[in-house]
Write a structure and sequence with these properties.
By secondary structure, the protein is of the alpha/beta class. The chain is built from 12 helices and 25 strands. It has 2 domains: about 220 residues, Enolpyruvate transferase domain (UDP-n-acetylglucosamine1-carboxyvinyl-transferase, Chain); about 210 residues, UDP-n-acetylglucosamine1-carboxyvinyl-transferase, Chain. The chain has a 4-stranded mixed beta sheet with strand order 23-24-1-25. The chain has a 4-stranded mixed beta sheet with strand order 2-17-19-18. The chain binds shikimate-3-phosphate (S3P).
Length: about 450
């Protein structure tokens, strides 16, 4: 079944308090690490989106007992590092690149063969970025000829440690190598050229596994861990996902007279690029009630409408806001003047080619935009409205649903069913603060 969303111009400013669902990156990792632990872990705040359910389904298919999820609560009884059993069927990772790439690192060292498959979008995403380093650790894994899924993995008993220099700033590749490194005979290191989300490193520590990060330059770091250890079950509370909160940060920054608070959001500094970018565009964003939850910094984010100005986005902020660019482009379309996105070619390897898909969608709703190899140039102005295709990409669909809040005519998004991968209650939460996104199911 396919879903169409349609948003009409908001008649009033957005107001109120919202708690968006749990962080997707942390939810995947909590399911993975709890499954491989010794003992029982209680997870709260889990994102019950399709992506995380794909990860959970894979572990259940490999013999892990999990009760829930029930309103974000999930109890997992771990089987230990070597306790997974061979799945009977292919492991379907749905739309999730994180699930597929991280699972590849884990499956490389199991005592059985497995096959990772995905939906149409995932089936065209690059996977050699994980199979190449894993193969150099002695793993036996192969993609299709074009470097895309399915991935066939034949587990090997012991992997070789490597010192791997990431060719691109990718937390998924870093994490796949580190997870394989848990099974390697010695110390594995990964050098990242720029900071990427560090939830794997933080969460490994929460599960009692030593992992050390050393800064090499103002951008690069090296992460090291020794193989052969164990994970110890723990209770973990997952805060809200800043990537989901970002849709509302932008909504409140472009719809006049808005003032909203996003509660209990993970503000890990490897994820807060969207706040820095919106502030550079003049947004009024305050972080309140700072606290630490489960080894991660958390705050309430208050956003008050002030009207945005275009800017040249600092390329150093790109990996720190990598998932937020679709909605940042919507902010740029509503800002006064020109906004330039550069150094962002990784956007082409996401759930869709987010550079060309955003350019196409923005043009469809009347925005002047120039496509570049590594980004785009957006000229702010009035949004006319029109029809947009999501290209199976949840963040494209939600970004254009927000754009409809300021457009002259409605913005209609086709193929919006993928919103359920990361933000199942998106439509309900938008209406809670006064933005009405009308869903229409099409069979
Ligand atoms: C993620 C890392 C990022 C991000 C993705 C989640 C993760 O991908 O885009 O949504 O949880 O590690 P890359 O590592 O490909 O940049």
């Amino acid at each position: 079944m396919s879903l169409v969303l349609s948003t009409k111009k908001a008649q009033n400013g957005l107001t109120g308090k919202l708690r968006v669902p749990g962080d997707k990156s942390m939810s995947h990792r909590a399911v993975m690490f709890s499954s491989l632990s010794n003992g029982t872990s209680n997870i709260t705040g889990l994102l019950e989106g399709e992506d995380v359910m794909a990860t959970l389904g894979a572990f259940r298919a490999m013999g892990v007992d999990a009760q829930g999820p029930n309103d974000g609560d999930l109890t997992i009884t771990g089987v230990g590092m070597r306790g997974l059993s061979a799945p009977e069927n292919d492991l379907d990772m749905g739309n999730s690149g994180t699930a597929m790439r991280l699972m590849c690192g884990i499956l490389a060292a199991q005592s059985f063969a497995s096959k990772l498959v995905g939906d149409e979008s995932l089936s065209s995403r690059p996977m050699r970025r994980v199979t190449v380093p894993l193969t150099s650790m002695g793993a036996r894994c192969a993609t299709d000829e074009d470097g895309c899924p399915p991935i066939h993995v034949r587990g090997v008993e012991k992997l070789e440690p490597i010192d791997y220099k990431l060719p691109m700033a990718s937390a998924q590749v870093k994490s796949a190598v580190l997870l394989a490194g848990l099974y390697a005979d010695g110390e594995t290191s990964v050098t990242e050229p720029a900071p990427t989300r560090d939830h794997t490193e933080r969460m490994l520590k929460a599960y009692g596994y030593d992992c050390e990060t050393e800064k090499l330059t103002d951008q690069a770091s090296i992460i090291r861990l020794k193989g052969g250890g164990e994970l110890t079950a723990t209770d973990i509370d997952i805060p809200s996902d800043i990537s989901s909160a970002a849709f509302f940060m932008v909504a409140a920054s472009i719809i006049p007279e808005s003032k909203i608070t996003l509660e209990h959001v993970c503000v890990n500094p490897t994820r807060t690029g969207v706040i820095d970018i919106l502030k550079a565009m003049g947004a009024d964003i305050q972080l309140l009630n700072h606290r630490a939850i489960g080894g991660e910094p958390v705050a309430d984010i208050q956003v008050t409408y002030v009207g945005l100005k275009g800017c040249d986005i600092d390329p150093k902020l790109v990996p720190l806001a990598i998932d937020e660019f679709p909605v940042i482009c919507v902010a740029a379309a509503c800002a006064e003047g020109v906004t330039t996105v550069s150094g962002a070619e990784e956007l082409r390897a996401k759930e869709s080619d987010r550079i060309s898909v955003m350019v196409e969608g923005l043009r469809n709703i009347g925005v002047e935009v120039e496509e570049r190899r590594d980004g785009m140039v957006v000229t702010g102005g009035v949004i006319a409205g029109g029809e947009v295709e999501s290209h199976h990409d949840h963040r494209i669909a939600m970004s254009f649903a927000i754009a409809g809040g300021v457009s002259d005519d409605a913005v209609t998004i086709k193929g919006a069913e993928t919103v359920a991968t990361s933000f199942p209650n998106f439509v309900a939460l938008t209406s809670k603060i006064g933005l009405h996104v009308a869903p229409q199911a099409i069979s």
